[in-house]
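Reminder to self: tokens first, then the designed residues, so the page reads top to bottom the way the pipeline ran.
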């Protein structure tokens, strides 16, 4: 480079850089520059122009170095030069100097790049290089051009795919995958995702050069060029064939019935859900072998095979190309598009192709239910429930029949489904309300307690009776929510009456399901504390079924004892209708028994009178308060009073009414 070339530099472009730069005159002063990075403002630059740089920016640099910069006739590169900032701190930079001219005078152009920035740039480049090398060493990689042709691969890919560079370069992306409808669908999705500029990731099946299948976890990344034609796509793959093999084996164990080779109920649920999502019409046929265990005991030595195997052979022959599942030992499901008449013909097929035990045909009968999607039900759970309801009806009619869901059953199931959905809304919006049925002390003639009863009047489905509501709530698990709602309202009402000067006990009904929650007692006590309700104003009613199950579960008894110790009372509801065991009356903390209304209604019978009198005396002998529910006439009340009954409850006293109406009766 000649001196003339060196001095012919245009100054302005040199000063427009992201890094500090300036023009240094032979006098050692700055003529022009950008030193914002070192906190020198425009006004500061005017001061710097008048002072030698050795006293300001280069105050930490030796005179020899400064002289070398000023006298140089060639570009220079100086590392780790200390620059003094306006705040009198120093920062290390790399200097690039170059002779130039400024306003006709010889000068030096100086570019300062802070060392931190140089290291950062180098570090980022090194990291990218290390990352790229790491990917190539750890994964299979394939690079595609904008049209999907292979332009580069690494050794990992070649080793797994059995290709050679000469053979694979120039092949297309699609030639790396097996020829099948599923594979075509996946590859189209991958390619479309890449062309839209997005990353695709997932597990895919590929094929080697010699047509062996293998699985990879693929990450496909688009790399953008200066033009669309220069775009590239990188496939980063990890071989997961062994993992997939294990997965398939585990799925076989988890989803396949080992005896019959049919799918089980868990896999069936997945299949049905997929078919529903695809809106595929089908019939859900639920088949149950009648009196299975009796038949099995009599005929389970069928020449080295089993009754189930022989039965499923006939199923597979008759329902060819249909999906079949084994639900449990004697119940099966067939998913088929075939018409109802064909399905019902399976009974005739079994008669024509009987299962033999020796020379004797096994008397096999089936109860089956046919439910259609989407005409009858629209979810897997609904299909199961509907089919089981149909089978129950078939069995009640004698069995050995395959029927569709009846109109009445269809309506009942639809009603139940709507009730379940509306109940969630009712609980969320607090649309349930409470009525109270008074209990009259026969000696004082005063109301001493009330039973809290849930009521629900829905704007869409009308009134839902407790007999309909409670079973649905228990089945769906919402009984706990209703129980919490009732407890809260009962406690609040007991406190309201107490504040008005009335000691009225409020009784709520509870279920075994609620008490199986180990935190039930704690929750009840917290509600009492939150509402300020005295424990002796709360009474919990349990059924004989509850009592019988509680007897066998120490956890439930323990919770009941905790509540009893706090002063909460327990009442045994529906006394006399249960299992005839009186042991739980001694084991459980029961203070009251309620004679069921079925006995009260039959009090005209002399035998029933003797029975009720015996119940009353039994309760009295155990120091229990005896309540008779369902009292509807004056004669019934008088007779019960004569027997020694303590409290009566029923329509003769009052129907369930609002809290205000109870207050007016006190």
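Designed residues (666 positions):
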């Amino acid at each position: 480079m000649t001196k003339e070339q060196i001095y012919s530099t245009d100054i302005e472009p040199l000063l427009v850089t992201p890094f500090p730069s300036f023009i240094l005159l032979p006098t050692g002063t700055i003529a022009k520059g950008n030193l914002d990075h070192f906190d020198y403002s425009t006004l500061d630059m005017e001061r710097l122009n008048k002072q030698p740089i050795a006293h300001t920016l280069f105050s930490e640099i030796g005179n020899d170095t400064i002289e070398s910069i000023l006298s140089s006739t060639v570009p220079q590169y100086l590392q780790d030069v200390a620059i003094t900032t306006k705040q009198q701190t120093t920062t290390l930079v790399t200097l690039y100097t170059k002779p130039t001219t400024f306003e006709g005078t010889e000068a030096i152009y100086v570019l300062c790049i802070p060392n931190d920035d140089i290291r950062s740039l180098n570090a980022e480049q090194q990291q990218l290089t290390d990352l790229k090398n790491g990917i190539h060493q750890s994964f299979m990689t394939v690079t595609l051009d904008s049209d999907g042709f292979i332009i580069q691969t690494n050794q990992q890919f070649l080793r797994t795919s059995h290709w050679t560079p000469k053979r694979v370069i120039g092949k297309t992306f699609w030639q790396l995958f097996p020829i099948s409808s599923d594979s075509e669908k996946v590859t189209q999705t991958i390619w479309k995702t890449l062309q839209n500029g997005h990353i695709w990731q997932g597990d895919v099946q590929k094929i080697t050069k010699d047509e062996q299948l293998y699985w990879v976890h693929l990450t496909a990344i688009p790399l953008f060029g200066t033009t669309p034609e220069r775009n590239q796509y990188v496939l980063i793959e990890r071989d997961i064939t062994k993992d997939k093999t294990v997965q398939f084996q585990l799925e076989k164990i988890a989803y396949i019935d080992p005896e019959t080779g049919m799918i089980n109920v868990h896999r069936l649920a997945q299949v049905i859900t997929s078919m529903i999502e695809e809106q595929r019409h089908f019939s859900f046929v639920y088949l149950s072998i009648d009196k299975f265990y009796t038949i099995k005991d009599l005929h389970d030595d069928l020449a080295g095979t089993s009754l189930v195997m022989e039965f499923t052979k006939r199923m597979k022959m008759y329902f060819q190309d249909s999906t079949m599942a084994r639900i449990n030992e004697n119940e099966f499901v067939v998913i088929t598009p075939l018409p109802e008449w064909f399905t019902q013909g399976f009974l005739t097929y079994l008669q024509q192709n009987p299962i033999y035990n020796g020379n004797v045909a096994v008397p096999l009968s089936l109860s089956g239910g046919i439910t259609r999607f989407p005409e009858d039900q629209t979810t897997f759970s609904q299909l199961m429930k509907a089919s089981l309801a149909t089978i129950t009806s078939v069995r009640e009619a004698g069995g050995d029949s395959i029927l569709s869901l009846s109109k009445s059953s269809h309506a009942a199931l639809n009603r139940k489904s709507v009730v379940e959905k509306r109940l969630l809304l009712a609980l969320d919006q607090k649309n349930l309300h409470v009525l109270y049925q008074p209990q009259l002390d026969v000696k004082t003639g005063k109301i001493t307690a009330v039973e809290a009863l849930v009521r629900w009047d829905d704007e869409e489905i009308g009134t839902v009776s407790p007999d309909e509501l409670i079973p649905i709530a228990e089945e769906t698990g919402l009984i706990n929510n209703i129980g919490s709602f009732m407890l809260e309202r009962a406690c609040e009402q007991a406190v309201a009456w107490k504040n008005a000067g009335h000691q009225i006990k409020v009784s709520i009904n509870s279920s075994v399901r609620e008490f199986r929650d180990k935190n039930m007692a704690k929750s009840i006590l917290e509600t009492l504390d939150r509402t300020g309700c005295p424990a002796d104003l709360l009474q919990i009613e349990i059924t004989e079924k509850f009592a019988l199950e509680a007897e066998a579960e120490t956890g439930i008894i323990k919770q009941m004892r905790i509540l009893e110790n706090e002063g909460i009372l327990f009442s045994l509801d529906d006394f006399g209708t249960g299992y005839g065991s009186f042991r739980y009356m001694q084991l459980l903390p029961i203070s009251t028994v309620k004679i069921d209304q079925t006995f009260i209604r039959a009090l005209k019978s002399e035998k029933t009178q003797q029975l009720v009198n015996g119940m009353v005396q039994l309760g009295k002998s155990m120091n229990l308060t005896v309540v008779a529910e369902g009292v509807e006439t004056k004669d019934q009340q008088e007779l019960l009073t004569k027997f020694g009954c303590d409290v009566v409850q029923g329509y003769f006293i009052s129907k369930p009414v609002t809290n205000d109406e109870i207050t007016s009766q006190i």
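The longest strand covers residues 90-102.
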